Amino acid sequence: MSLKKQYIKKNQVCKVTFRVPRKAAMGADSICVVGDFNNWSIRDNPMEKLKSGDFKTTINLEANRAYQFRYFMDDKVWENDWEADRYVRSDYGNCDNSVVVV
Q1: Which of 26, 44, 49, 97 allows an S-S link to 38, with CB 3.0 to 4.6 Å?
Q2: Which residues share a beta bridge with 96?
Q3: pLDDT number for residue 88
Q4: Dist. CA 30–CA 8, nearest whole Å
């Protein structure tokens, strides 16, 4: 998994590309990026499945902030980004959330 950051508009916005490689997708048919930037909606940010089997999507985020997120696979499995900037304890359940800092 990986995060690619591209700052635009004089560093006020960061285009973050979220990518889940085929191996990490574990045979998923669908993956959504879910986080505090979309009010933890499991539908708002679906990822595109590429011919390679990887999944990716790009989201514009306000710069100078940290955002918690996770991947939701096939409407049943939650997964963190293996290359997140850091991890924080979730307020729900016994797990951590990934964090991207932009």
Answers
A1: 44
A2: 89
A3: 96
A4: 29
Pick from 44, 45, 3: nearest CA to 21: 3
Find the distance separating the first CA and the last CA of the chain, reported in whole Å.
17
Contact 13, 62 (CB under 8 A): yes
Stretch 25-36: mean pLDDT: 96
Classified as helix, coil or strand, 14 is strand
- Closest Cα to residue 59, out of 83, 36, 91, 88? 36
Do 71 and 79 contact (CB within 8 A), yes or no? yes
Residue 29 scores a pLDDT above 90: yes
- Residue 100 in tokens: 């991207």
**Quick one: which H or E segment has residue 23?**
helix 22-25
What is the per-residue pLDDT across 46-56, written as a single tens digit (0 to 9) for each?
A: 999 999 999 99
Classified as helix, coil or strand, 11 is coil
Question: Whose CA is closest to 49, among 76, 83, 20?
Answer: 20
